[in-house]
Specification:
With about 210 residues, the protein is of the alpha/beta class. It folds into 2 domains: about 100 residues, NAD(P)-binding Rossmann-like Domain (Rossmann fold), CATH 3.40.50; about 55 residues, no CATH class. About 35% of the residues lie in helices and about 15% in strands. The strands form 3 sheets. A 5-stranded parallel beta sheet has the order 3-2-1-4-5, with helices on both faces. Strands 6-7 form a two-stranded antiparallel ribbon. Helix 3 links the parallel strand 4 and strand 5. Helix 5 runs antiparallel to helix 6. The longest helix is centred in the last third of the chain and has 18 residues. It is elongated and about 60 Å long.
Length: about 210
Amino acid sequence: MSLYPIFLKLEGRKVLIVGGGSVAEQKIEGVLRSATDVTVISPKVTDRISRWAAEERLKHMAIEYREGAAQGYFLVIACTDSEPVNRAVYDEASKSGAIVNAVDDPDYCNFYAPALVKRGDFQIAISTGGASPALAQRVRRELEQKYGEEYGPWTSWLGRTRAALRETLPRNENRKQLIRMLALGQPQPNPDDHGNNGGDDGRCRTQRLGS
């Protein structure tokens, strides 16, 4: 079956992670980039997850998963070291209408988490539909070399510039062409810019109109 790729807005949505080991930590780190209501169920968690709980970035319930615990969530990820537990989480959460992923168990997922290249708002998601996560990770590493950290500030600059052009220029083909021309440029890495890898405030080198 062909998959439909999407990016989810998780702010204000209830998210549950069942598991507290290194795999759970990796999943939680990604979720916390956008989610504001995250619960973790696991008797034990890594030091990093414990620190996130202490910082009130998530709620930690130090208990074993039990029936009824996966109801009422928008997104659920099961990543314990017990296949029966992960599948029980999937069964319960999916029946309550959640989108669910049991890690490394494609038959017990109604979504797959892609390998991700993230540079601020610039993101590239890679998926093999669960067929070969190793291939997705290989492609991710290759893309990380091609699209460096400078793409983050550059994308932000493109967004601000696009908004300004839409406010000041009439809606016509010339405005569309100008916005497209900006995206044809290249962000300028600047290792001496103390963290602003997008060059001059994220600006880029673009081709001149008519050149």
